[in-house]
């Protein structure tokens, strides 16, 4: 991970560390953890106060407000978009955040769908149509694979992640 902007350091249990080191420690599974009341193992990570978003109401809206609050004033400003990202470990959260940010952009969205036809040369073609109907296949969501539908607007930030190798990134 390369952090090029001045991101403030974080303080964890009285220890100050650069933000990028903290995120890498979480990703590598070496960040300090603690246990809640009845937990046997410490599996919780303490998030510093300066990194928390306070909200009352909808958390996804609060995160989008915090990161993309000035989006309307910065449409087309590549630096503004490049310097912002929201990290989340779950694809379901990514979908919610994408919808929230997409709604903030002006204009009409366009929906792109994947191709969902079976190869006619397959010897089990008839069985595949019964076992794996396209309606079912279109609902599947996999990490590292795009969803069946992609909704975008002109000017929407799109991040393409490929071949991420932490040892060779920086």
Automatic annotation (TrEMBL):
It holds the Pfam family Pif1_2B_dom. One of its GO terms (molecular function) is helicase activity. Residues 135-167 form the DNA helicase Pif1-like 2B domain. The keyword Hydrolase applies. It comes from Heracleum sosnowskyi. Keywords: ATP-binding, Helicase, Hydrolase, Nucleotide-binding. PANTHER family: ATP-DEPENDENT DNA HELICASE, PTHR10492. This is ATP-dependent DNA helicase. InterPro entries: P-loop_NTPase, Pif1-like_2B_dom. The keyword ATP-binding applies.
């Amino acid at each position: 991970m390369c952090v090029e902007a001045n991101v403030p350091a974080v303080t964890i249990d009285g220890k100050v560390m650069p933000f990028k080191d903290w995120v890498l420690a979480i990703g590598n599974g070496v960040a300090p953890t603690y246990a809640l009341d009845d937990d046997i193992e410490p599996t919780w990570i303490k998030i510093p106060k300066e990194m928390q978003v306070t909200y009352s109401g909808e958390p996804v809206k609060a995160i989008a407000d915090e990161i993309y609050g000035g989006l309307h004033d910065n449409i087309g400003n590549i630096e503004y978009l490049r310097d912002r990202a929201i990290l989340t470990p779950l694809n379901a959260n990514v979908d919610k955040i994408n919808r929230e940010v997409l709604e903030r952009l002006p204009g009409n969205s366009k929906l792109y769908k994947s191709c969902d036809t079976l190869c006619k040369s397959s010897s089990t073609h008839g069985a595949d149509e019964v076992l794996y109907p396209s309606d079912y296949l279109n609902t599947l969501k996999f990490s590292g694979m795009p969803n069946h539908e992609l909704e975008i607007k002109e000017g929407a930030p799109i991040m393409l992640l490929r071949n991420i190798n932490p040892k060779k990134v920086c």
